[in-house]
Structure formats: C-alpha cells, structure tokens
C-alpha cells in the first residue's frame, strides 16, 4: 500500500488513517472522558510510529506520545507527529481537534498533513495540494484558546479592531486560517514542536505567514522541543501584528 507513496502522500495517508482509527475508538463506546483521550492517543500513536518506522526506517521520529531520544538530532530528515492534537476536544466529541504528520528536513517543516476527522466527512489539508483560499474578512478574526486566550492575542485584537474566535487544538486553529475561517492565529502560551510543525508546513504551502511572534523563523528538531509562541496569519496582516507584539513585549 505504501511502497509507491512519496513523502507528502505518505503523510496525508497516515494522518487520514489515524483520524479514522480515532473515530473508531471513540465510537466503540469502550471509553469516556480522560480514558477516551488516553486510549485514542495511544492507539493512533502506535499506528503512526509503526508505519513510519516501517516505511522510512532511516529517518528520525519525534512524537508527543513516545519517549524522546537523542537519535533524531543527528538526522537530516525527521518526522514530527501529534497523534491527537486537542485531546480534550476529541474526548468531548467536538470538531476542533486534529492529527498532525510532518517531515522536517534540516529543521525546516517541508512537508505536512493535518487531518480534521471531526468535521463532517473529515478532511485532510496537505502541503503538496493547496486548496483555494477565500478572500479575507474586512474585520480580522483572531483565533485563541477557547479556555485560556493568550494575553498578547487579546491585546493585539483590541489594537487592530479584530474579533476573537475561540477554538480548540492548535492544528484546528491553523487550518481555520487556511480554510478562510479566520485571518490570524497568534499564540504565546507555550507549545511543543509537535503542536505546530505539520500546521506550519501546510500553512506555509498556502502562502500564509508563519513565524515566531518576534518574526524569527520556526525551526524544528531541537534538543529542547518547547516552542513558546507562534504566528500564522494572512500575509497582509503579518507586519502589523508583529509590530504590535513588539510594542507589547517591550512594555
């Protein structure tokens, strides 16, 4: 099944299949609450890591749900995955959760696929097959956590006359910008590489601005996987948002 797949097709196929597995786990009725999230994470993770180890044995691998090792640091090609991004939303049967599969080459997110299984019919957004993006809204919409919106995002929204939109997982937020449901995703509350790698690859392939909130590039496969902030937005908003954040950080 996998033998003739290039990296992008493999990423998309694995994200899609992991999403289907997660729906099956949830629909089985065997788990609920936190137990459902744990079961989903473990099941999807086992599928993804076994498939990648079989199909790309020479590549490095970093997963939220597997013990990290230093082996990946010497690799040029490293897969970074998040089996369930938005475990709470997955457990609550919401639509704003995702599966992330990305390939970094020398630290750059070159290939990515983000599955959104909770949407009607499910969908997979991929870096090798950009979709047509609708025109942006006149009043910018800023995506924030539905439970703990970042102070910087709230402040920037006030400065630029934007509207806040609460949403679950990082992948769902980033893909909402790709899908034309918002213009700006500004996060400053702390994340890890697996939270943003695949979304950044997909967003960049759609021509969106992707960076840290100080404007520096997103670099992956670091020894320390913590990545405290992120900006994914329509390119016409990047300069303004970065300028407003700079003022906030200097205050």
Short description:
This protein has 251 residues and is α/β, with parallel strands linked by helices. 39% of the residues lie in helices and 23% in strands. Strand 4 (108-115) and strand 5 (124-126) form a beta hairpin.
Q: Descriptors for this entry?
A:
251 residues, alpha/beta, five-stranded mixed β-sheet, 39% helix
Question: Overview of this structure, please?
Answer:
The protein is of the alpha/beta class and 251 residues long. The chain has helices at residues 7-27, 33-55, 87-91, 151-160, 170-178, 193-205, 235-250, and strands at residues 60-63, 77-85, 98-105, 108-115, 124-126, 141-145, 163-167, 184-187, 191-192, 209-211, 226-227, 230-233. A 5-stranded mixed β-sheet has the order 1-2-3-4-5, with helices on both faces. A 5-stranded mixed β-sheet has the order 7-6-8-12-10. Strands 9-11 form a two-stranded antiparallel sheet. Strand 4 (108-115) and strand 5 (124-126) form a beta hairpin. Helix 4 (151-160) packs across helix 7 (235-250) and helix 5 packs parallel to helix 6. The longest helix is centred in the N-terminal third of the chain and has 23 residues, at 33-55. It is globular and about 50 Å long. The N and C termini lie far apart (55 Å). The model has no long low-confidence stretch (mean pLDDT 95).
């Amino acid at each position: 099944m996998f033998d003739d797949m290039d990296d992008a097709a493999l990423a998309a196929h694995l994200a899609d299949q992991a999403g289907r597995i997660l729906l099956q786990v949830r629909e089985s009725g065997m788990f609920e609450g936190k137990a459902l999230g744990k079961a989903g994470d473990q099941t999807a993770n086992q599928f993804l890591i076994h498939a990648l180890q079989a199909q790309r044995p020479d590549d490095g691998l970093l997963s939220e749900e597997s013990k990290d090792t230093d082996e990946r640091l010497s690799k040029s090609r490293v897969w970074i995955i998040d089996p369930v991004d938005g475990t709470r939303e997955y457990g609550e049967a919401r639509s704003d959760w995702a599966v992330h599969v990305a390939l970094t080459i020398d630290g750059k997110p070159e290939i990515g696929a983000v599955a959104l299984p909770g949407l009607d019919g499910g969908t997979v957004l991929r870096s090798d097959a950009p979709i047509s993006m609708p025109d942006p809204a006149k009043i910018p919409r800023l995506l924030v956590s539905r439970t703990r919106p970042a102070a910087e995002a709230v402040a920037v929204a006030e400065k630029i006359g934007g509207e806040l939109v609460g949403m679950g997982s990082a992948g769902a937020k980033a893909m909402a910008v790709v899908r034309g449901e918002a213009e700006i995703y500004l996060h400053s509350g702390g994340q890890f590489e697996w939270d943003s790698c695949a979304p950044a690859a997909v967003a960049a392939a759609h021509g969106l601005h992707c960076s840290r909130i100080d404007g520096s590039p997103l670099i992956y496969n670091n020894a320390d996987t913590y990545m405290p902030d992120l900006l994914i937005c329509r390119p016409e908003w990047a300069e303004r948002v970065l300028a407003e954040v700079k003022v906030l950080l200097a205050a």
